[in-house]
């Protein structure tokens, strides 16, 4: 399969380059030339397939021309070795729990898949001696998923840059205690400073001549596309519970950079019978504004208690435009939106717990509430529960006034020893450090 850039100046690029580059040279995002439609037989018995079987089938349609069957199967089975259960919350609302991976958030799926795919292409290109360096700036969740996803993956070194004192202790321990090929850099600055350092590194001629640099955020095809797999698995599980429920299936995605929902839209284009999508936002509601007005006005993000969705200029918005040929009416016919304030999110976490016993995290709460507010009587809704509530411990405990049990996996991280490199926010310091690491 070949890929083009959403800016249309670059086209017919192979998957290997797409994954290693991340972003196209014209600054657009890569999209596949063709979105393959899966045949009806697949949907006929999908309810009897495991997550890995479904993921492999979909992966084969997307990536099978570029990766041989045995290797692709290995990538899928090794990276997606945890369950993604569909849990009934009310009569017509289900939670797709995407938090059973190593860092208890949905980004594990994309990060683990991408690490193995990148490693596959590095090895195949005969570059196994040359390290590829993944640079990632994080306000918490992305760093932990990427660091754990790439841990021990051969030929890749990961640098996680995070703002000193500004990520929660639980998040911090998930990427600072790993060691090995993961280096955590504690920047004396804000998240924006971290992001600026990473951007400067990608643009620095000398650095790029001396080392291979790439990014692992959801602009990368290898990170965002595998997220399509679990939409098929959600459908399969719903079908197993009730064939009728899948007739009017609505999927709601708590969204920030819109990589997750874009993968769902691709699943629909592959023939998955999802009736429509709902994008749930916190106060960063630029997408909702676009749906309502047809105008897209990026702006600085505001801080909320669903902080992984604090994005003021969603990077995957251009992919959504591209998928629907820039047609506002085509987009609004398949996607609706809702936005919630911190107060509303708190109220939802509390009332859902009281009424159903189900504990939401602040991101999933936006998804659940958007279904409560937007489902038609004949529809069945699935929201993506993107993180485990214990990842936002202080917030969730203060809302419900009770202790939240911390899963074993999270407790293990908290036992590890913190190893970080302290860094100023000056690019020259970061650059000098990277060059020194490369010479080792
Ligand atoms: C990253 C993240 C989101 C937003 O996902 P996008 O793909 O950026 O839209 C939502 N919830 C949680 C918990 C996240 O970590």
Please supply descriptive tags for the structure shown above:
440 residues; alpha/beta; 6-stranded mixed β-sheet; 5-stranded parallel β-sheet; 14 strands; binds pyridoxal-5'-phosphate
List the helices and strands and how they pair.
Elements: E1 2-5, E2 13-14, H1 15-21, E3 30-32, H2 40-44, H3 51-63, H4 69-79, E4 86-88, E5 93-97, H5 107-124, E6 132-137, H6 141-150, E7 156-163, H7 169-176, E8 182-187, H8 191-203, H9 205-210, E9 212-215, H10 221-224, H11 229-241, E10 249-254, H12 259-269, E11 276-281, H13 286-293, H14 317-323, H15 328-334, E12 335-339, H16 342-356, H17 362-374, E13 380-385, H18 393-400, H19 408-415, E14 421-423, H20 427-439
Helix pairs in contact: 3-4, 3-11, 4-5, 5-6, 6-7, 7-19, 12-14, 16-17
The protein binds pyridoxal-5'-phosphate (PLP).
Pyridoxal-5'-phosphate (PLP) binds at residues 105, 107, 141, 218, 254-260, 308-309, 363, 386-387.
